[in-house]
Design goal:
Elements lengths: L1 E8 L16 H13 L7 E3 L8 E10 L6 H15 L4 E8 L12 E9 L12 E2 L6 H11 L1 E4 L13 E12 L3 E8 L6 H13 L5 H6 L18 E7 L6 H9 L14
Parallel strand pairs: 3-10, 5-6
Antiparallel strand pairs: 1-3, 1-4, 2-3, 5-9, 5-10, 7-8, 8-9
């Protein structure tokens, strides 16, 4: 039986999502409590939609969990949801537990992830200090929105990623925009089919360089030609970043999407042919 968990957390006191020996992580916390509240004899393993780094927050994290067959599925779902609400610490909430539809995979079935990076570039509101990054330089958000069109689409984002052996840095950037919100906070929204390690915070760091006048739009657009990490790009602090939402296709398309997502991305059209 596969369950879907919709999760939110304040990442300040967590060393990221992934379990690490001797460190407090979101995965470790959940995998410690779930067998206890369900009285399971075996450990459980969670798979999430996107591993967040230490200090990064989430409102819309999604994970799946496989359990042994049970006789009363609605009862098990209800018990897990109720009991987790009573035992989890205040900085971690499982918003919803539900039976996953056939073919659902929290990671590979996802078609997009949406992050928001929040920056206080004026006098920071003390009520927001944990979830925003304070800067002393005022940002021109029009410059971010003006250059966004050059970055959207399918590109190799190697300049912004900590590369991992055998992994591609090609991603489809679906949305990039900036606006002012409550408390005059600058919100930069980044949405893509997937993200590689440190990509969002590095991309925001490059956008901040443009919005503050330190760099121009051509410099930023030119980074897409790089085939390795560019050291001059600032990786923004984790506290300003929140995973807001993960999108999935219709239930009947979940399994096919999971297969598609496992394929290695390329910059070539899917139906292209090699020259004779």
């Amino acid at each position: 039986m596969r369950l879907r968990l919709d999760i939110a957390y304040d990442g300040t006191e967590f060393h990221g999502w992934a379990a690490q020996r001797g460190l407090r992580t979101v995965q470790e916390e959940l995998e410690a409590w779930i067998p206890r509240v369900l009285r399971l004899n075996e450990p459980v393993s969670l798979t999430c939609a996107g591993r967040t780094d230490a200090g990064v927050h989430a409102r819309g994290q999604v994970a799946h969990l496989d359990l042994p067959d049970v006789t009363d599925v609605p009862k098990t779902v209800a018990e897990l949801s109720y009991r987790l609400r009573n035992v989890l610490p205040s900085d971690l909430v499982v918003r919803r537990v539900s039976l996953a539809p056939p073919g659902f995979d929290a990671r590979f079935s996802a078609i997009w992830r949406r992050y928001v990076y929040r920056i206080a570039d004026s006098t920071p509101d003390p009520l927001l200090r944990i979830h925003v990054t304070a800067l002393r330089t005022e940002l021109d958000l029009q410059k971010i929105n003006a250059v966004a069109g050059k970055l959207r689409g399918l590109h190799d984002f190697a300049a912004f990623c900590k590369q991992r052996e055998g992994a591609t840095t090609i991603r489809n950037l679906l949305q990039l925009s900036a606006r002012r919100t409550w408390g005059d906070v600058a919100e930069i929204t980044v949405k893509a089919d997937a993200f590689c390690h440190s990509m969002v915070r590095s991309l925001v760091g490059a956008l901040v360089a443009v919005a503050s006048g330190q760099r121009d739009a051509d410099w930023l657009a030119g980074l897409l030609d790089a085939r390795e990490r560019v050291g001059e790009i600032r990786v923004m602090p984790p506290g300003g970043l929140t995973l807001e939402e993960v999108g999935y296709p219709r239930d009947r398309e979940l399994a096919a999407r999971a297969v598609e997502a496992r394929a290695r991305r390329t910059l070539e059209p899917a139906d292209s042919e090699s020259p004779a």
